[in-house]
Amino acid sequence: MNPNTFSIPDELVAALRQAQHVAVLSGAGISAESGVPTFREAQTGLWAQYDPEELATPQAFRRNPRLVWEWYEWRRGLVAKAEPNPGHRALAELARRVPRFTLITQNVDGLHQQAGSENVIELHGNIMRTKCLDDGRIVTNWPETDEIPPRCPRCGGLLRPDVVWFGEGLPYSALTTAVAAAQSCDIFFAIGTSALVHPAASIPAYAIRNGRITVEINPNHTPISRQMNYVLNGPSGEILPALLAAAWNPQSK
Ligand code: BV8
User: Fold this and answer.
1) Domain edge (last residue) among 137, 163, 189
2) Cα(197) to centroid of ligand 1, in Å?
């Protein structure tokens, strides 16, 4: 990982202060400092032998529903122990500072909402929500059972996490709202995303093509870095608070 070398450009601070609409696309990296492993990081223990992109598919669930259900139970346990970090909290604060704020996330951990962000657009669902495989409706509780995965109390179908698996379409309204925000915002941030998972990874291109001010926050280089107006190399948990301090507490600069 290259050393975290970031400085906050004055012109970006000025643009942020006068922005009417700020849009953010966040990825697993914004939750890294909360201890939630990013999607690509090696999995630990029992799960080290599996590739997340193999497990997070309808095929894997059809082939071995118990294994996939238990993988999500393990991940839910990690997420349940995680707390929002200063990066999540800075975005909740930013929403209070600008007239219009659109937060789009690829993450399924719900940490933005825990940090106080509202109207979060969850492109890939939420790991803490469960739905019926057959009727697709959310199930909030089900009878105690030794059967894994448990079954839908309404129709008896298998229960599954309410996330978007590889090969599944993203929620249409979430995706169209995200694209519209990228096209019409004043400043677009891509934060903690490897920009590899589509179609989410194509959202920054709408801001770039529409001449919006674009900012990437990531310790590493990504496929979109070259096209962004600003690239701040470092952890979002440090950069975002520094950016807000520079914009709204200039004396702390
Ligand atoms: C679909 C839920 C079709 C599940 C997830 C082109 C166009 C369209 C599709 C494709 C395409 N090419 C390939 C595809 C197929 C596929 C895809 O994109 N594959 C990839 C691997 C090439 N896409 C799909 O299958 C999508 N569906 O296209 O269906 C369709 C259409 C209509 C109708 C039917 C079908 C579905 C994709 C969604 C998959 N589900 N999550 C679960 O979580 O179990 S995606 C999953 O990956 C997570 O949500 C996660 O967010 C995402 C990984 O991306 P990132 O968030 O970027 O995370 P990553 O770990 O990659 O990177 C972390 C970054 O953070 C790094 O850059 C790192 O440097 C940085 N970082 C680290 N520390 C910090 C930091 N940054 C800041 N601060 C730090 N401290």
Assistant:
1) 163
2) 3
Whether 124 is in the pocket of ligand 1, judged by its Cβ within 6 Å, is yes
- For residue 22, give both structure tokens: 């700020």
Q: Are residues 143 and 155 in the same domain?
A: yes
- Residue 59 sits in a domain of what CATH number? 3.30.1600.10
Q: How many CB atoms lie within 10 A of CB 121?
A: 19
Tell me 38's DSSP state. Answer: P
pLDDT at 1: 43
Ligand 1 neighbour 85 (Cβ under 6 A): no
User: How many structural domains compose the chain?
Assistant: 2
User: What's the gap in Å between 28 CA and the centre of ligand 1?
Assistant: 9
> Residue 90 — φ and ψ, nearest 5°?
-65, -35
Between CA 203 and CA 39 the distance in angstroms is 19
Catalytic residue among 21, 88, 112, 124: 124
Active-site residue, 124 included: yes
Per-residue model confidence as pLDDT tens digits over 96-152 = 999 999 999 999 999 999 999 999 999 999 999 999 999 999 999 999 999 999 999
pLDDT tens column, 47-91: 778 888 889 999 999 999 999 999 999 999 999 999 999 999 999
Find where tokens 């598919």 sit: 57
Residues 104 and 185 in one domain: yes
Q: Which of 166, 191, 218 to mutate to test the pocket of ligand 1 (most atoms within 8 A of CB)?
A: 166
Co-location of 198 and 142 in the same domain: no
Which residue segment(s) compose the domain that 16 sits in?
Answer: 3-35+84-124+170-252
Only one residue has tokens 């803490």, namely 128
